[in-house]
Amino acid sequence: MKRFLILLVAQCLLLPILAQKPAIRPGALWLDRDGNPINAHGGGVLYHRGTYYWYGEHKSAHSSSAFVGITCYRSKDLIHWTNCGVVLPVDTQKASDIEKGCIMERPKVIYCPATRKFVLWFHLELKDRGYAAARAAVAVADKPTGPFSYLRSGRVNPYCYPADWTAADRQRCDTLSQTRYQQWWTAPWREAIRQGLFLKRDMAGGQMARDMTLFVDDDGRAYHIFSSEDNLTLHLAELSTDFTYHTGRYWRIAPGGQNEAPVLFKHNGRYWLITSGCTGWAPNEARMFSADNLTGPWTQWPTPCRGKEARTTFGGQGTYALPVAGRPDAFIFLADIWCPKHPSDARYVWLPITFEGGHPVIEWRDEWSPASFWK
Ligand code: DGJ
Question: What is the total count of domains within the chain?
């Protein structure tokens, strides 16, 4: 009788789990094929030769700093993920850029056909320096699963003005005086920011580079999009043909608009950019911009999010728009629900992007299956 009761209870507990059909459940715990929670935060996904590779930040239970490195998981169906391990580990050597305890955020990987290398860029903050370094870091690998060789880090595009600035724009920026605008958020300060106050400040050392993503356009050119100028202005910076350097050509997006977490994709010839505001680990309402040319001008639209918790981007912050292979109309919006008290427990929100009148819409779903894309 006792054995029967134990069996019955076990069945009652297990059956609902076993009966669950394979699906993506935004905000729920997402286990890899070994049964461990997927640890790949602030990530991006690369599709290469029939397989999706998900790269992200490894977070520990008590800290958002990097004590392990950048992780990779692979999948064919976008639901079941196999852990491929740490593709770029932190360095145990003191004073290394990527010394254990540094901050490695928002890693993204693209494939460079010219060099046949996988190129990883991420936002790097040096150990014990908070978010002051604001550097971009790059590493390369021969295989999508690494290992990645660390190349370098630094601020971006020193001594370069935005590519679309006129001589008058440059001159106006050159005459801005840092000491004249000591008080932030005043109307004259905002106008000075728009005119390039911080851009001028960082001219010699290079522009700040924090939250970031990568984008490869149809012509094969790659771009690095990041929050710059103290998170006030986004920069879209062109990468060299091997994807490992900045060319010095860049364009500012929404100067002074305080955008983080850039997510960029192209649909029907139009570029869409989804961002967040700057509220640390707390969620806020997503913003959306579109442009007919990648270099702008960009037009702002209301948030694409709809349904439960749309006002806070479903409690998350965007990190990537994943184009579904072979389906030019299908994209998945990837976001993180940060959990600063238990960073590794930050959850993933993956939702399909649909289009209404050509405009992206992201609607909350408790669960959904990417199989619908291939039906
Ligand atoms: C928001 C950013 O989007 C995150 O990547 C991280 O840098 C946090 N801010 C830190 O507060």
Answer: 1
As to burial, measured by CB atoms within 10 angstroms (0-12 exposed, 13-18 middle, 19+ buried), residue 203 is middle
Q: Is the pLDDT of residue 210 over 90?
A: yes
Phi, psi of 278 (to 5 degrees): -110, 95
pLDDT band, very low/low/confident/very high, at 1 (cuts 50, 70, 90):
low
**Residue 325, pLDDT above cutoff 70:** yes
What is the number of the ligand 1 atom nearest to the C-alpha of 261? Answer: 3
Nearest alpha carbon, ligand 1 atom 9: 280
Residue 296 is assigned to a structural domain of this protein:
yes
Which distant-in-sequence residues (6+ apart) come within 8 Å of 2 by Cβ?
Answer: none
Return the SS3 of 72.
strand
b/e sequence 143-160, b meaning 16+ C-beta within 10 Å: ebbbebebeebbbbbeeb
Identify the domain containing residue 91 by its residue range: 23-158+205-373
Neighbour count for residue 17 (Cβ, 10 Å): 7
CB atoms within 10 A of CB 95: 8
The pTM for the full model equals 0.94
DSSP 340-372: TTSGGGPEEEEEEEEEETTEEEEE--S-B-THH
The verdict on residue 339 lying in a domain is yes
329: domain CATH number is 2.115.10.20
131-183: pLDDT as tens digits: 999 999 999 999 999 999 999 999 999 999 999 999 999 999 999 999 999 99
Q: Which of 48, 133, 56, 58 is nearest to 90 (CA)?
A: 58
> For ligand 1, what atom is nearest to the CA of residue 106?
5
Q: Which of 278, 338, 341 to mutate to test the pocket of ligand 1 (most atoms within 8 A of CB)?
A: 338
Q: Which atom of ligand 1 is nearest to the CA of 276?
A: 3
> Residue 27: inside a domain, yes or no?
yes
Residue whose CA lies nearest to ligand 1 atom number 11: 280
Q: What single string gives the DSSP state of each residue in 201-259?
A: HTTTT-B---SEEEEE-TTS-EEEEEEETTTTEEEEEEEPTTSSSEEEEEEEESTTS--
Within a domain: 56: yes
pLDDT digit string, tens, across residues 245-293: 999 999 999 999 999 999 999 999 999 999 999 999 999 999 999 999 9
